[in-house]
Specification:
By secondary structure, the protein is of the alpha/beta class. 34% of the residues lie in helices and 18% in strands. The protein has 2 domains: 167 residues, Phosphoglycerate mutase-like (Rossmann fold, 3-Layer(aba) Sandwich), CATH 3.40.50; 43 residues, no CATH class. The chain contains 6 helices and 9 strands, in the order βαββαβααβααββββ. The longest helix is centred in the middle third of the chain and has 22 residues.
Length: 234
């Protein structure tokens, strides 16, 4: 089987509501985020050459605008490495963790709702970054559940690629930091204790090699070391 590589890319910086843990905010990249996407494309070009990889014509992105914009900018920079049949496809499966019906409410608003609802206890102090905590709202999921959703998408896409690939190939996935890190845990390339210690650089690729029997290996691209005690949502 040819070598098959999944490139995980976190979107660039975007206009973000303050103190708002929902990562389903619909806002665009800021100027710095666009610059990050262009730099990420240049880094990916170097990795394609270093590992002698063809770039798969389908790029998978989260539905959220910041991810789509990042993917589109990277595709434009890598047009010469793509076939005429290249396409950008968006998937709900690549979204960040959902907080359900509390989407785009502030931390203070969410915690006030929980205090006012007699059905629910006080959330833990670190609820925003607790991998297994799920807000008790319709449609909400834990970070671990979001990671499992993303990992399932990666597995399906790379398994499908394995059925037809004839050359060493890299497939680009553009999404969100926390969901990608939890997906990496589900794929066996990141230890659980490292999820909270690490982050992802904006628009810089992390390469995971897909191997037979659903084995995965981190082969290139750096995780970002998180400052101690910083919480994460994306």
């Amino acid at each position: 089987m040819p070598r098959l590589i999944a490139a995980l890319v976190r979107h660039g910086q975007y206009r973000q509501l303050p103190d708002t843990p929902s990562a389903h905010q619909p806002f665009p990249l800021v100027a710095e985020g666009k610059t990050q996407a262009l730099a990420g494309a240049a880094e990916l070009r170097g990795l394609l050459g270093e590992h002698a990889l063809a770039l798969h014509p389908q790029v998978d992105s989260s539905q959220l605008l910041r991810a789509w914009q990042t993917a589109k900018l990277m595709i434009e920079q890598l047009r010469d490495r793509l076939s005429a049949q290249s396409e950008l496809k968006c998937f709900d499966a690549l979204a960040e963790r959902s907080v359900g019906s509390a989407a785009n409410l502030s931390i203070a608003q969410i915690e006030a709702i929980l205090r006012e609802d007699p059905r629910y206890p006080e959330p833990p102090a670190n609820w925003k970054s607790d991998s297994d905590f799920r807000l008790p709202f319709q449609g909400a999921e834990s970070l671990m559940q979001a990671g499992e959703r993303v990992a399932t998408h990666l597995r399906r896409q790379m398994a499908a690629l394995a059925e037809n690939a004839t050359v060493d190939t890299l497939k680009l996935f553009v999404g969100h930091g926390a969901a990608f890190r939890h997906a990496a845990f589900h794929l066996g390339t990141l230890a659980f204790d490292d999820i909270r210690k690490l982050s992802m650089y904006h628009a810089r690729p992390v390469l995971l090699e897909y191997q037979v029997n659903d084995a995965w290996k981190h082969i290139a691209g750096e995780w970002k070391v998180r400052k101690p005690y910083n919480e994460f949502t994306d």
